C-alpha cells in the first residue's frame, strides 16, 4: 500500500498560517477531514488540498451540498438549528449541549442573508446577522424587516466586532481606505454574496461611486473571514475584508480597523419562551460565557444578551 503524507494540526496551522486552535475548530466543524491514531490527530495531504481548493471556490459539488443542507426543513419540535460562522456560536452551542444534553443543537455555517432566508423558510430557527444598512446607518433591523415581512421576531445582541482590512504585516502598500482597493498595485480577496462583509463592501462602493470592476480580485471569493485572512497571509492577495478576531488567529498579517459592527441573533418571537431558547438567552447573559469570549479577544460584550429590537 502506498504511503500518503499526513500532517499534524500544528503543521496544518503553519501551512495555512493560522492558529492551531483554528485548525481544531475546522476539524470539529467538518470543514477539514481528519482521523485519529490513538490520541493523535492527522490530516492527509489530499484532504488538505481539497480544503484549499474548496476555500477558493473551485468545488461546485461542495457548494451544492452546503446549499442542500440549508434547504432541509427542520421538523424536530425540541431542537434548534443555529445559522452563522463566528466561533462565538461554537462556544454557545457547547454551553447549550452541556446544559440541555437531551436537545439537538445543530450548526449551519451560512452567511447573514442566507441565514435570514432560512429563518423565513422555516429551515432554521436561530440565525446570526451583521448587515449594514447605508440608508439608516444601522445594522440588521432593516434587513430583518425586508427579508421576513409579516414575521414577528426578536433581535438579540451577541457582540460588537470591528470590521476592517487584513493586510500583509507592516502594511507595506499602505492600504487604509476603500479607495485604495482600486489601485493597480493592489490585489483584493472578497467574501461571497450575502455575507455581512460583502454587503458592507458593496454598500461602501455604491456610496463612494466606485465601480467594482475597477477592483482587481473582486470576483475572487472566499467563504469565511479566516479564509480571507489566510489568503492575505499566503500572498494570494494584498488585502481582504473581515473581522478583527480572524486577524488575531492568522500569522503575518495586520488589521486596519474601518467600522464597528453589531453582530446579532434573530429568532421568531413565538419561540422565545421555549425552554431551549430561554436557556440560550440565559447563557448569553452568564458570567461563564462572557469570561470565555472575553478571553479570546476581538469582541465587545457590552450588550450581549440584550434584546435590541422586536418586529
What's the short version?
The protein is of the alpha/beta class and 311 residues long. It folds into three domains: 6-55; 69-161 and 262-310, D-Maltodextrin-Binding Protein, domain 2 (3-Layer(aba) Sandwich); 163-260, D-Maltodextrin-Binding Protein, domain 2.
Question: What would you say this structure looks like, in words?
Answer:
The chain is α/β, with parallel strands linked by helices and 311 residues long. It has three domains: 6-55; 69-161 and 262-310, Periplasmic binding protein-like II (D-Maltodextrin-Binding Protein, domain 2); 163-260, 3-Layer(aba) Sandwich (D-Maltodextrin-Binding Protein, domain 2), CATH 3.40.190.10. The chain is built from twelve helices and 14 strands. It has helices at 9-16, 20-29, 45-55, 60-71, 87-99, 112-121, 141-147, 196-208, 225-233, 244-249, 275-284, 287-296; strands at residues 6-7, 35-37, 40-44, 80-83, 105-108, 126-129, 132-133, 138-139, 153-168, 188-191, 221-222, 239-243, 253-268, 307-310. Strands 4, 5, 6, 9, 10, 11, 12, 13 and 14 form a nine-stranded mixed β-sheet that branches. It has a three-stranded antiparallel β-sheet with strand order 1-3-2. It has a two-stranded antiparallel sheet with strand order 7-8. The N and C termini lie far apart (61 Å).
Amino acid at each position: 500500500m502506498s504511503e500518503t503524507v499526513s500532517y499534524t494540526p500544528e503543521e496544518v496551522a503553519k501551512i495555512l498560517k493560522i492558529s492551531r486552535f483554528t485548525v481544531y475548530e475546522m476539524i470539529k466543524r467538518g470543514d477539514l477531514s481528519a482521523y485519529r491514531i490513538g490520541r493523535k490527530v492527522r490530516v492527509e495531504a489530499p484532504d488538505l488540498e481539497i480544503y484549499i481548493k474548496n476555500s477558493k471556490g473551485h468545488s461546485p459539488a461542495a457548494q451544492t451540498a452546503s446549499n442542500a443542507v440549508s434547504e432541509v426543513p427542520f421538523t424536530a419540535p425540541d431542537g434548534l438549528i443555529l445559522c452563522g460562522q463566528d466561533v462565538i456560536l461554537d462556544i454557545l452551542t457547547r454551553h447549550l449541549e452541556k446544559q440541555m444534553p437531551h436537545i439537538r443543537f445543530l450548526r449551519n455555517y451560512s452567511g447573514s442573508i442566507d441565514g435570514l432566508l432560512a429563518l423565513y423558510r422555516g429551515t432554521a430557527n436561530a440565525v446570526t446577522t451583521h448587515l449594514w444598512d447605508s440608508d439608516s446607518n444601522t445594522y440588521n433591523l432593516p434587513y430583518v424587516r425586508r427579508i421576513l415581512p409579516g414575521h414577528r421576531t426578536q433581535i438579540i445582541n451577541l457582540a460588537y466586532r470591528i470590521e476592517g482590512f487584513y493586510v500583509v504585516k507592516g502594511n507595506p502598500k499602505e492600504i487604509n481606505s476603500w479607495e485604495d482597493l482600486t489601485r493597480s498595485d493592489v490585489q483584493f480577496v472578497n467574501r461571497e454574496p450575502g455575507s455581512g462583509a460583502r454587503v458592507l463592501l458593496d454598500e461602501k462602493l455604491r456610496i463612494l461611486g466606485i465601480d467594482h470592476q475597477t477592483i482587481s480580485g473582486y470576483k475572487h471569493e472566499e467563504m469565511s473571514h479566516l479564509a480571507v485572512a489566510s489568503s492575505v497571509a499566503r500572498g494570494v492577495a494584498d488585502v481582504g475584508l473581515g473581522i478583527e478576531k480572524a486577524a488575531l488567529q492568522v500569522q503575518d498579517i495586520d488589521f486596519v480597523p474601518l467600522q464597528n459592527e453589531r453582530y446579532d441573533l434573530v429568532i421568531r418571537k413565538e419561540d422565545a419562551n421555549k425552554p431551549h431558547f430561554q436557556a440560550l438567552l440565559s447563557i448569553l447573559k452568564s458570567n461563564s460565557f462572557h469570561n470565555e469570549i472575553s478571553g479570546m479577544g476581538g469582541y465587545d460584550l457590552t450588550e450581549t444578551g440584550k434584546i435590541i429590537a422586536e418586529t
